[in-house]
Design goal:
Elements: H1 2-10, H2 12-18, H3 33-36, H4 53-68, E1 73-77, H5 82-99, H6 104-111, E2 128-133, H7 155-164, E3 170-172, E4 189-192, H8 193-203, H9 208-213, H10 225-236
Antiparallel strand pairs: 1-2, 2-4, 3-4
Helix pairs in contact: 5-6
The structure holds zinc ion.
Zinc ion (ZN) binds next to β2.
């Protein structure tokens, strides 16, 4: 806790200067700001599934079809609220800065290879899923790209998803496209496009820089406007173009 106080005090001046005054953060009739940043109490469907209603039905249909082909789609992660993302973020920030002695900005750059800044995760929307094949044995971390590649335990499911997921509305988000900026290739992360496309449109109407500068989690005081602008461009918008 002491360190947190120190971090906050150390950069309070730059934070105050970076905040543009009198600019509204967001106003949109379809999705509330809290809903878009994972702070709203939304209705989620399916035990162990936890998606918006339409995405839930699509997921169940896809799971049934995959079962017929011999794959047992298991949900590793679906809806995740702001505060869960905040605890993931802070755990990593402390590990990299305190245990590994990294400089705060280096730690932040490392976190955002795979993890989002709280308030910017697509998992906040109840439309995005991380999935594996539960019908095969695997050990250790399951969400590693090699496990979905040739010879890996989830190779078969990955081929099936490549052929079939879009028919159910699910699109790969962080594709294996060398020129794509932002998050690394995530062969396990799919998004239910009929809802996530309009939600991303609404999200882009948020003043994301201002929203993030007004949050309060470990490390956020190191964010500069320039860093956040490139994070938005690369990490939020650096996705499969079919989801834009
Ligand atoms: Zn994910």
């Amino acid at each position: 806790m002491k360190r947190r106080t120190f971090i906050k005090k150390a950069s309070i001046t730059s934070l105050a200067c970076a905040l543009p005054p009198m600019v509204p953060v967001y106003s949109d009739p379809d999705y509330s700001l809290d809903e878009l940043i994972g702070k709203a109490d939304i209705d989620l469907y399916g035990e162990g599934i936890n998606l918006r209603e339409e995405a839930y039905h699509a997921f169940v249909a896809m799971k049934k079809a995959a079962l017929k082909a011999g794959f047992d789609i298991q949900m590793v992660s679906s809806y995740r609220d702001y505060f869960r993302q905040e605890s993931i973020w802070e755990r990593k920030f402390l590990r990299y800065t305190e245990d590994d002695g990294m400089q705060p900005m280096d730690a932040i750059e490392k976190i955002i290879e795979y993890s989002t800044i709280p308030g910017t995760s697509r998992h906040h929307w109840g439309t995005d899923i991380d999935i594996i094949d539960g019908s095969v044995k695997s050990s250790g971390d399951v969400l590693v790209p090699q496990k979905f590649e040739a010879g890996g335990p989830f190779e078969g499911l990955k081929h099936w998803l490549d052929e079939n997921s879009e028919e159910f509305g699910f699109y790969l988000v962080y594709t294996d496209e060398p020129k794509r900026p932002g998050f690394k290739y995530e062969p396990w992360h799919y998004s239910y496009a009929p809802i996530s496309i309009p939600m991303l449109e609404a999200y882009r109407r948020i003043n994301i820089v201002k929203m993030l500068l007004s949050q309060d989690f470990l490390g956020c005081d190191y964010f500069t406007t320039g860093f956040l602008r490139s994070y938005i461009q690369d990490n939020i918008l650096g996705i499969n173009p079919e989801l834009l």
